[in-house]
């Protein structure tokens, strides 16, 4: 009977590990599915025709490389504590790598919306002139596609294409509004819908909205110039720990390697990263004034 207890313990351990691995596999499949669908939607919004699975594979490779590099710097295979310390630091680095694609896509989307907003006032002037010349609203959109530049030409072309395949005018406008996420475009779409329902003069509506958008751009430009110093200070302060760390590494490499290989050093590094992220978020909230 002496073998019964070790056997039961081994069986329980096996079942626990199997359940843990199974749950991790299900979580990974759910994450991959959600990540792929979200990335594909963002690529469609940006008119980028890149398979999201390819981005995921590249992210896996980059995260693995980051894990190994940080583990070699902070870990030590000679002791269990060194392995745990290196593994923790490597997981942090790999996790940050997984955030990079979303961060890049968010920046690309914001810049695309900014370019769209800059083009919208001029496009509405052109549409107003087209309506005054006797064109229909769809023909006015088509003039922007022919004469405008991306991204507004792409978005309006997609809008017209959706109309050709059977989507209603209101549904195509709502889809473009959801795809762009621009407050100026939302104002334009709401004005078009109200004018179509009430029989209003679209040329006057476009002229007024164009003037409103230009005034908002002027106020936003003034606010950006007034908050430029705060944004620059935030970037400088955020970059100081990284610059100091790199400088100290070249000045005294042995000291910095000892810092990275110590548990206290890894904890301090993690706290610094968290505080850096919180500081960047707070500074962004302070200088981001909504008009």
From TrEMBL:
Its main location: membrane. The keyword Lipid metabolism does not apply. It is a multi-pass membrane protein. GO terms for cellular component: plasma membrane. Pfam families: T2SSF. Residues 127-246 form the Type II secretion system protein GspF domain. The chain crosses the membrane at residues 6-24, 61-81, 87-105, 232-251, 263-283. InterPro entries: T2SS_GspF_dom, T2SS_GspF_sf. It is found in: Cell membrane. The keyword Cell membrane applies. Keywords: Cell membrane, Membrane, Transmembrane, Transmembrane helix. PANTHER family: INTEGRAL MEMBRANE PROTEIN-RELATED (PTHR35007), PILUS ASSEMBLY PROTEIN (PTHR35007:SF1). This is Type II secretion system protein GspF domain-containing protein.
